[in-house]
Amino acid sequence: KAGVTQTPRYLIKTRGQQVTLSCSPISGHRSVSWYQQTPGQGLQFLFEYFSETQRNKGNFPGRFSGRQFSNSRSEMNVSTLELGDSALYLCASSSTTSGGWHEQYFGPGTRLTVT
Amino acid sequence: QQQVKQSPQSLIVQKGGISIINCAYENTAFDYFPWYQQFPGKGPALLIAIRPDVSEKKEGRFTISFNKSAKQFSLHIMDSQPGDSATYFCAARKDQGGKLIFGQGTELSVKP
Description:
heterodimer, A: four-stranded antiparallel β-sheet, about 0% helix, globular, B: mainly beta, six-stranded mixed β-sheet, 11 strands
């Protein structure tokens, strides 16, 4: 099976702009979670989508939003970019099979640089 | 109560030695504890995971030891190799939702 794919891999944006990142989960996985990774704060949970609905949300401002499509692909959007939004944005997908451990498998990430 | 504390921050081990990384948690509702390995420029890769109903789980050279009463768990890498040099993250989750709480990471360097 192909792994989690994320596009684009690298992105440079200017403060105040907005950005959209895309994630395609492993085939058959219906849950997609997003994380932000920075040297200072480490790996922090942004939100999780399952069946096109946000199921969990982390402690990030409303500038961070996401959505999931009927094919389980997900996008996250960051509006009014700030310098502090520079980070590696990771997407993880998991199976939701009843009785399973729902392991999360990460994609390679999108490296966002805000200047 | 949502924190997972990981130590040490960095670790240097000789080839063939045992690498040990420790994590502690506070929330007793956590019921799933995975370890991830991350190489520079890559996403975290799931190494091994455990649930609180067992005290140890072994997969190849990687072992998780779990102490429910102490609310601690650790990763042991036996016969450490230079190729194991990476950053390791412990994590915890409650229920089956996607929210993993990560430790701060341990940068492991295995010297030849």
